[in-house]
Design a protein that fits this description.
With about 120 residues, the protein is α+β, with helices and mostly antiparallel strands. The chain is built from three helices and five strands, in the order E-H-E-E-E-H-H-E. The chain is globular and about 40 Å long.
Length: about 120
């Protein structure tokens, strides 16, 4: 089983409250995640313990430039972000590197599986 892991503690509450419906990942992740994949949604730092929040299905994987992100993409990533100008510094803080609006990202939409 694959995991859709979130390093930042920023996401923990959003995942618990089910406010997060997608993740924006740098680069083309279509080889890693595909529509219909079942994944564990987890939170935890790299090389440390992870906490499983729930099991989910990958609903859609879109590859686009940051400048092409829609309001649905932005709100699904972080309900407090409503513009491209706001997502760039947010992603820079997550990835700890300079990011341009022309950079390629994958938008991975997921939904909880109720067991």
């Amino acid at each position: 089983m694959r995991a859709l892991n979130f390093y930042s503690s920023t996401y923990h509450n959003q995942l618990i409250c089910r406010r997060k419906t997608c993740t924006i990942r740098m680069g083309d992740k279509t080889e890693k995640y595909a529509e219909g994949d079942i994944v564990w949604v987890t939170v935890g730092k790299k090389f440390a313990q992870k906490k499983k929040i729930y099991t989910a299905m990958i609903d859609r994987v879109l590859v686009k430039n940051i400048s092409e992100l829609t309001q649905d993409d932005l709100k699904g990533e972080n309900p407090d972000i409503d513009s491209i100008k706001a997502i760039v510094p947010f992603l820079e803080s997550i990835y700890n590197k300079k990011i341009q609006e022309s950079d390629t990202v994958s938008v991975v939409y997921f939904s909880e599986i109720i067991e």
